[in-house]
Amino acid sequence: MTGGLLVAADQPRAIRVFLLAGQSNMEGADSRARRIDEFPEFQGAGAPQPEVLFTALSLSDTNASTVWSPLAPGDSFGPEITFARKLTRSGIAPIALIKSAVGGTTMAFDWNPAAPSDGQRLYPRTLKLIREALQALDRRGLPYRLEGVLWHQGENDMLEPKLNRRYAQGLTELVQRLRQDLQAPELNWFIGEVSEKGIWGMDNRRNLAVLREQQEVVLKGLPRMHWVPTSHLAFDVMDSGQPHYHFGTQGQLQLGEAFADAYLRAAGKSVATRRRPPHPEPVTPAPKKGGRVRLFVLAGQRTMEGEDAFVAQIPQISGFRELAKPQRQILFRYSLGGGVQTSSQWEPLGPVDDLGNFGPELSFGAHLRRILPSEDTLAIIKFTHSGAQGPDWSPDGSPEKHRNLYPAFTAFIRAAMDDLTGKGHACTLEGIFWHPGENDTYFAPYRLNYAAWMRRWITQVRLDLKAPTLPWFISQQHPAAIWGPMAEINGSLQAMAQTEAGVVMVPTSHLPHARTQFATHGTLLLGEEFAKAYLKQPHRAGP
What we know:
This protein has 18 helices and 15 strands. The chain is globular. The protein is an alpha/beta fold. It has 2 domains: 265 residues, SGNH hydrolase (Rossmann fold); 243 residues, SGNH hydrolase (Rossmann fold, 3-Layer(aba) Sandwich), CATH 3.40.50.1110. The longest helix is centred in the middle third of the chain and has 19 residues. The N terminus is likely disordered. The strands form 2 sheets. Strands 8, 9, 10, 11, 12, 13, 14 and 15 form an 8-stranded mixed β-sheet that branches.
């Protein structure tokens, strides 16, 4: 082992070797290679990558020989496909991937380096796999260096209270033991978040928070540990409407790139994004004589963030083709994915999501700009987290502190208003535009309380922003979506709107809708519906 590492230190073209390890979401459960080209940002990603070496732990034969082969997806796949693709496109080459992932496994037993008899003894099996793979490179005269471990695991430990509070100890022992046995004391680890967008983010909310706390102990306690957020990534939904246990096809494609981005940042490399066009220059327009800035807030979860609405498809839709370009007459600020991607200054309204998605903001702004007086400047701020649920937005504070969005949401609005007034603008807050949470619709304990939560939230936001008549525009869940009893949540929100002044329900049943989301065309039309609902109201000078 040492020989290969020492040789690599003096050879910049040494193969960078990564280990991918964990359980079902690292394995790639419920991903389908045949579906890869359905997602515009990843068309062609399923093609073989002959320049990337790949080997994996045999799940059926514990005595199987370790053989390197070109990387290509099987019927299913994990994050390795797009991880390798993004690294090579970023100039990181050559690379080799060693994968050891088995679904349903635990840190406490299966990955425990002490290899208890009632586990799958994955540590010794994985160590053997790594050593044999590196020895095969040595035999071929190929210099290499161990570059990092991509780790996604913890779901099964999380479910058992007797295990989840021992997770930090187990992961620490695993990291230290592997570094020792590979003689690689500075080996980087990249820990993928167990997504809060799946069903575990609701029915096992507290257990998942304990796992997150345990992982943070390891991140802070050991050197060269890196966190990879995933709750903003696409996550599969079952036909019953239940959020899945697994990322699925689109989520796995995004997960691989999330790991790649984390590695590139750790290596001090620039991270290419999908912004179309490239990141625009900040804008700070001067106040217009006789005009004001009308500030609009768009907020929410999957639909508002833009899951399954693809920027690449906008040019194909008549009447909206120009919206793939910046709208320089409209100011835009954003916080996406619960703060995973944020703007530092005002930008022209346009596509910004690094996942290649967009929300209703593009068509919303364009429609308003056509109608409202030209002397008024329009500014839109977007605050979203597609992995959030109702309790995360509570003004009383989420019990799981890291999921508490309310303080950041209100601070984001205040900061935007203060910035505009500080630049000499007369700024009026025109309304908050919200789409109900999709996961909340499925999960009965959340669905039954959703309207009461919304009333409490609306009241507190108005108090905290000192805007007692601030309008709220809430779009209905679409009846074609599979999430749950749409009539139930729509009806409770409609009843709330009838008794809560300044709350407007926005119909959506006439819009196109895909299986789980409004998709590209529906999202564009949804933005226009929000704009039309606003334009029907008296145009006040703001609070």
